[in-house]
């Protein structure tokens, strides 16, 4: 067993799905009469649905929505995203990285702000074994930038969260990692910049899963 465990975000980290989520959120928001530019939506991807919508509304000077309206928007986002699932692809090197970690006996888990409905197609695409812990939004009281998802994933692995490395593509992943007292590693594959990720607490920043795989020694993973 390795001395380190890895907790992965999913969208933008292991699968190339960020822009499908952006378009699905735009569709869901427009169904509620909320018009937003896609760049504003992209900047909030990685937060949980409720925080995500409220943060966007605050930016454009709108009041918070009642819970039933919020729940409907989140539901419509999930439905819209599932219709785009065929456009989603594994990011370069993601499947190979997960296989490599298994071969090196490095424990890993996935912690995503997505729901079971939006996450399952990507998990199947990555061929994630049933034995790998996966924590989705429904399983915790608060999602990123709160640390709950990563703390829950570490608990499922049976590893102290302080012994884990969080790998994510957004500043919300890095902030959540800091709050969980885990080491944060950022990937550029979700569209955030290197400096943004570093300011949010990333110890190292790599291009994508393939690049990260080439530098596992920098987080303490020793290869034979």
Features:
44% helix; 8 strands; 224 residues; two-stranded antiparallel ribbon; 10 helices; DNA polymerase, domain 1; Rossmann fold; alpha/beta
Quick rundown:
The protein has 224 residues and is α/β, with parallel strands linked by helices.
Helix content: 40-55%
Question: What structural class results from the helix and strand content?
Answer: alpha/beta
CATH topology term of the largest domain = Rossmann fold
Major beta sheet, strand line-up: 5-4-1-6-7-8
Output the number of helix runs. Answer: 10
What is the CATH superfamily label of the largest domain? HAD superfamily/HAD-like
Distance between the termini: 13 Å
Number of β-strand runs: 8
Radius of gyration: 17 Å
**Quaternary class:** single chain
Q: Uncertain segments of ≥5 residues (pLDDT<50)?
A: none
CATH architecture of the largest domain: 3-Layer(aba) Sandwich
For this structure, what is the CATH class of the largest domain?
A: Alpha Beta
Average of the residue pLDDT scores: 91
Descriptive report:
The chain folds into 2 domains: 144 residues, HAD superfamily/HAD-like (Rossmann fold), CATH 3.40.50; 69 residues, Putative phosphatase, domain 2 (DNA polymerase, domain 1). The radius of gyration is 17 Å and the shape is globular. By secondary structure, it is of the alpha/beta class. Helix content is 44%, strand content 13%. It has a 6-stranded parallel sheet, with helices on both faces. The longest helix is centred in the middle third of the chain and has 17 residues.
């Amino acid at each position: 067993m390795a001395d380190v465990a890895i907790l992965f975000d999913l969208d933008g980290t292991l699968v190339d799905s960020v822009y499908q989520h952006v378009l699905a959120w735009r569709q869901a928001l427009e169904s509620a009469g909320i018009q937003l530019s896609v760049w504003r939506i992209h900047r909030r991807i990685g937060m949980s649905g409720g925080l995500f919508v409220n943060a966007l509304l605050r930016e454009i000077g709108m009041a918070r929505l009642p819970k039933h309206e919020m729940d409907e928007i989140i539901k419509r986002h999930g439905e819209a995203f599932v219709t785009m699932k065929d456009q989603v692809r594994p990011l370069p090197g993601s499947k190979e990285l997960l296989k490599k970690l298994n071969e090196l006996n490095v424990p890993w888990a996935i912690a995503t702000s997505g729901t079971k409905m939006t996450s399952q197609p990507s998990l199947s695409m990555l061929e994630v074994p049933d034995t790998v812990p996966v924590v989705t939004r429904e399983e915790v009281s608060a999602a990123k930038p709160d640390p709950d998802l990563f703390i829950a994933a570490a608990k499922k692995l049976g590893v102290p969260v302080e012994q884990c490395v969080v790998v994510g593509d957004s500043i919300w992943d890095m902030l959540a990692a800091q709050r969980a007292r885990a080491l944060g590693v950022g990937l550029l594959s979700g569209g955030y910049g290197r400096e943004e990720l570093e300011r949010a607490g990333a110890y190292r920043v790599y291009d994508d899963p393939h690049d990260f795989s080439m530098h596992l020694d920098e987080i303490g993973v020793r290869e034979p």
